[in-house]
Amino acid sequence: MKNNYVIGDPVGHSGSPVLHNEAYKQLGIENEFIFSPRKVAKENLASFMHQIMHEEDFNGLAVTMPHKSAIIEYLDDVDEHAGKIGAINTVVKRSGKLIGFNTDWLGAQSALIELTNLNGKKVSLLGTGSTARGVAYAMRSAGVQLTIFGRNNDKVINISREFGAMPASIESKTEIASADIIINATSIGISEESDTELLDTHYIDSNHIIFDVIYGRETNLVRAAKQSKASVLTGLDMLLHQAIPQCELHTGMRPDIEKLRKFMNERSNESR
């Protein structure tokens, strides 16, 4: 049995194990691959990476916060997209070497393309962290007019220069709302305690596309978007779209996205 892990801290909220194990089942390879969560604290990343290199059945990783950038120093190589983004969400063991990839940008881009033609759209991206970097790369690759909003002025200026975007303060709510598409790639909303109000219904209308990368709970932003009749995407949409190429990297086989979407939707409905 080949072992794939999702690593992070925390990691219990991750939907990746359920999604990937279902993909293996649908592909008929559930007796060849298994996907498991591993909670790895920042200070334990080096020892964990050393450990898995000596596991005979280790095959690959999905990487979540806080390791998306820190893990790069433990890899033998990264692909072109991951190198430009500066963040990794997928690791594959090949011929005894660890290779890093990023499928987050594909997940964000593909989820939005299902709703709209991105070329020329005006996009407000909230956040400057590893996930935001992947989204920024996806948006610039699609030819949007991108503005990046954050709290730390230096971080906003640096990431904006890197990805050819305009920098702005996350407090500039009117400017955020002037875009066609608003993407929350911050950690705001990941828990009830952190769910401060990014935008209320006053700023959102039915012409907006609101994309919140948080999944597992309905955030205040998503709630406001629904009340304003805006089009809504959540982190579950991004998770699904990034998992398809991630599964292919890990197994060499590409699952059917519609079958996985049906499974995830049914599972979500059952948990309500």
What letter string, H or E per element, gives the SSE order? Answer: EHEHEEHEEHEHEHEHEEHEHH
On the 0-100 scale, what is the average pLDDT? 93
* Discrete helix count: 10
Number of strands: 12
* Secondary structure category: alpha/beta
The largest pleated sheet is described as: 6 strands, mixed
Strand order of the largest sheet: 2-1-3-5-6-4
The structural domain count equals 2
Indicate the low-confidence ranges by residue numbers. Answer: none
CATH architecture of the largest domain: 3-Layer(aba) Sandwich
N- to C-terminal separation? 34 Å
Superfamily at the CATH H level of the largest domain?
A: NAD(P)-binding Rossmann-like Domain
Radius of gyration: 18 Å
- Give the class-level CATH name of the largest domain: Alpha Beta
Shape: globular
The amount of helix comes to 25-40%
- What is the CATH topology of the largest domain? Rossmann fold
Strand content: 15-25%
What does this structure look like?
The chain is an alpha/beta fold. The protein is built from 10 helices and 12 strands. Helix 1 (16-27) packs across helix 9, helix 1 (16-27) packs across helix 10 (257-270) and helix 4 packs across helix 9. The chain is globular, with a radius of gyration of 18 Å.
Could you give a short description of this structure?
The chain is globular. With 272 residues, it is of the alpha/beta class. The longest helix is centred in the C-terminal third of the chain and has 17 residues, at 235-251.
Secondary structure blueprint with pairings:
Elements: E1 2-8, H1 16-27, E2 33-39, H2 45-52, E3 58-63, E4 77-78, H3 80-85, E5 90-94, E6 97-101, H4 104-113, E7 122-126, H5 130-141, E8 145-150, H6 153-163, E9 166-169, H7 173-177, E10 181-184, E11 209-212, H8 220-227, E12 231-234, H9 235-251, H10 257-270
Parallel strand pairs: 1-2, 1-3, 4-6, 7-8, 7-10, 8-9, 10-11, 11-12
Antiparallel strand pairs: 3-5, 5-6
Helix pairs in contact: 1-9, 1-10, 4-5, 4-9
